[in-house]
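Input record (Table S2, row 343):
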Amino acid sequence: MSQQSPLASTLDMTKKPARVFSGIQPTGELHLGNYLGAVRTWRAQVEEGKDETMFCIVDAHAITVPYEAAELRAKIDAFAIDLIACGIDPEKTTLFVQSDVREHTELAWYLASVTPYGDLGRMTQFKDKGEGKEFVSAALFTYPVLMSADILLYKATVVPVGEDQVQHLELARETARRFNHRFGELFPEPKPRLSNTPRIMGLDGDSKMSKSKGNTISLFEPKEEFWNKLRTAFTDPQRLRKSDPGRPEICNIYTMHKAVSPKETQDEVVANCTGAKWGCVECKKVLFENFDKELVPLRTKREALSMDHVRQALGDGASKARRIAVETMKEVRSAMGLGSLST
Ligand code: SF4
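Output record (iron/sulfur cluster complex):
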C-alpha cells in the first residue's frame, strides 16, 4: 500500500471545496420526482456542508416556451417555499432566482459567440420540446447556452446531473474549453456528479414524472388527494389479479419504495409481490404511510414559512450570487475586449 507524502497531505488540506451549481425550473409546486430525484440529494449536500452549494430557480429558462407572466411569478414563489421547506436552508447555501442576477443573460450572449450553431441543433431537448409545435422560439434553440452561462458565471466545478442533462453539461464543458482557448484560461471545466437516485416515473409508469405530462403528485398535496393519485398509479401491467405474481423490478411503486421505505419493507414488497400475497393497493398503502412519515416534518416547516421570509432569503441569495457574478463578468469583458469602462 502506498504511503501519502507529506507534500500531498499538505496539498489536500489546502484543496478548495467544490462549488456545486444546480438549477431547477419553476414549473409550479415541487412534485415527488423533483424531490426524490434531485432536491433530497441537494439537502444532503447542504447539510453535509463539505462543498459550497448554489441553487438557482431558473425562471429565464421557463420563458423559452409560451407561458403566462402572472402564473410564472406565482410558480417562482411556490417553488421557493417548497425548496426551503424541503431543507434547502438559505442560511447554509445560496438560493436565488436566475433573473435577479442579470449577468446570466449577459454572459449567455457572449458565450453564444463561441458556441457553434450545429451543436445547438443536435440538442435532444430542443428536438423533443420543439417538435410539432406551431411556435418555436429562438430562445428554445439557444437555451443550452444560457445553461452554460448559469454554470460558468460562478466558475462552478461540479454540477449534479440526471442522465437527460449530460448532453447540456458536455456543451458547458466544451464552451469553457472554447472560451479559454480563444481568450485565455478563465473558466474551470465543470464536472458532472451523476445522481445515483432511482429514476421516478410518472403515475402513468411510462415517462419521467413531469408537470407538462400531467403525471405528477405534488409533494405538498393534501393527504387525501395524494392517496387518490397514488392509488391509481400504474403498476406491473401483467398483474391483473392479486393471485398473479408481480415483477417489482419493473414497477414504479417499488422504485418509490426503494426511495422512501426502510430496507425491511423493500424486502417485504419483493416477497409479497412475487409471491402474490399483497395486492397492489395494499402495497401502495404501505408506501403512502412511508411517504407520510417523510413528509410530515416538511409540511410542518412549510406551514410555518411566511412569504416575506422567503422573499428576504431570495434577496439575500441574489446579493451573494451577484457578488461572484459581477467579478466574473469583469474578467470576461476584459478578456473579450468589450466595453469602455473599467468596472
Ligand atoms: Fe408493484 Fe407493489 Fe403491485 Fe408489486 S405489489 S406490482 S411492487 S404495486
